[in-house]
Amino acid sequence: MALHQKGQLTPAQALYEQVLQMEPENFDALHLMGVIAVQTNNPGRAVELIGKAIDINPNNAMAYYNRGVALYDLKQHEAAIQSYDKAIALEPGYADAYNNRGNALGGLKQHDAAIQSFDRAIALKPDYAEAYKNRGIALKELTQHEAALQSFDKAIALRPDYAEAYNNRGVALRDLKRHEAAIQSYDKAIALEPD
After folding, report:
1. Whole-number pLDDT of residue 77
2. Distances in Å between the alpha carbon of 69 and those of 76, 83, 126?
3. By three-state DSSP, how is residue 75 classified?
4. Distance separating alpha carbons of residues 87 and 173, to the nearest angstrom
5. What spatial distance separates the first Cα and last Cα of the chain, rounded to whole Å?
């Protein structure tokens, strides 16, 4: 786990595999191998591994959350929502699960429901810049450009180096026909992330 937390995924995975050879039903090793699969863009394998972990311990909110991440990566939005809902049922204050649930609802074009999920994430964690940015995207999809702009501004106020929020802010400003301000916002995004 220490190697995993340091981002040394290959040696961490090798050790998790050793644990599973000795103890095939080790919840932590299965779950964390699944997390590595998410991190290395293998969401199908992640769903399989985390599913096995959940079979062993069906009361771990983080496992359902991580399975939701993998399902979302597979564009299985409804299944992802179900997994996030299970995480929230086990841990009602799980702001990240509400945020990701909102993204999955957005993937299903259920933007009003997505906004409700983002609002719940923000209520639980008022300094949640990513939830404000995602809320802004959902508002933009509903052509509520001024409200979207306010959400992007809040995300930037919370995290001044948030290039993605500046980019989305530029889109909202463009949609509001405020082109000079949009260009300034895009320029800020590019300055923060030149690539």
Report:
1. 98
2. 10, 9, 22
3. coil
4. 36
5. 32
Length of the chain: 195
- Quick check: helix, strand or coil at residue 177? coil
CA distances from 148 to 113, 161, 175, 177 (A): 15, 19, 10, 14
Q: What is the pTM of this model?
A: 0.93
Helix residue ranges per DSSP H, the chain: 2-5, 9-22, 27-39, 43-56, 61-73, 77-90, 95-107, 111-124, 129-141, 145-158, 163-175, 179-192
Nearest to 139 by CA among 124, 125, 122: 122
Q: What is the pLDDT of residue 43?
A: 97
pLDDT digits (tens, 9 = 90+) for 31-62: 999 999 999 999 999 999 999 999 999 999 99
Query: Quick one: which of 29, 39, 41 has its CA closest to 6?
Result: 39
* Residue 192 to residue 194: CA distance in whole angstroms: 6
What is each CA distance from 15 to 29, 43, 53, 135, 184, in whole angstroms? 9, 20, 17, 39, 48
Q: Going from the N-terminus, what domains does the chain have, and what CATH number goes with each?
A: 2-138 (1.25.40.10)
Residue 71 near residue 97, CB atoms below 8 Å:
no
Token pair 């509001």 is found at 176
